[in-house]
Amino acid sequence: MNREHPFLQAKTYLQSPLLTLLSRFGGLLLLFFISRIVFYLFNLPHFPEVKISYFFSGMRFDVAAIIFINAPYFILLLLPFHFISKKLCRRIGDVYFIVVNSLALMLNLIDTCYYPFSMKRMTFDILDFMKTTQSMGDLIPVFLRDYFYMIFIFTGFILLLCLIIFFTNKIRYEKFIIKSWAMAAQIVTRLLLVALMLVGARGGLQYKPLNVAAAGLPGGGNYAPLILNSPYSFLSTINSQKLERKHYFDDEECDRLYPLSRDEFINSYFTPPPTDHVVLIILEGIASEYSDYLAEYPKPLAGYTPFLDSLAQQSIVYRGTANGKVSIESLPSILGGIPSLMEKPFSQSQYMTNHISYALPLLRQQGWHTPFFHGGKNGTMGFDNYSKTAGVDSYFGFDEYPDKKDYDGIWGISDQPYLQYVADMLNRETGPFFATIYTLSSHHPFKVPPAYEKKIPDKGVEMQRVVAYTDQALREFFDKVKNYPWYQNTLFVITSDHTNYAYFLEVDHDKHEYSVPMIFFHPKMQGHGYRSRELMQHTDIMPSIFGFCGFQGHFISYGNNIFDEKSPHFGIHYHNGIYRFYISDYRYEFDGNQVTKIIRLDGEKQICRPEDVESYAEDVQLMKAVIQQFNNKIIDNKLQ
Question: For 210, phi and psi rounded to 5 degrees?
Answer without folding.
Answer: -60, 140
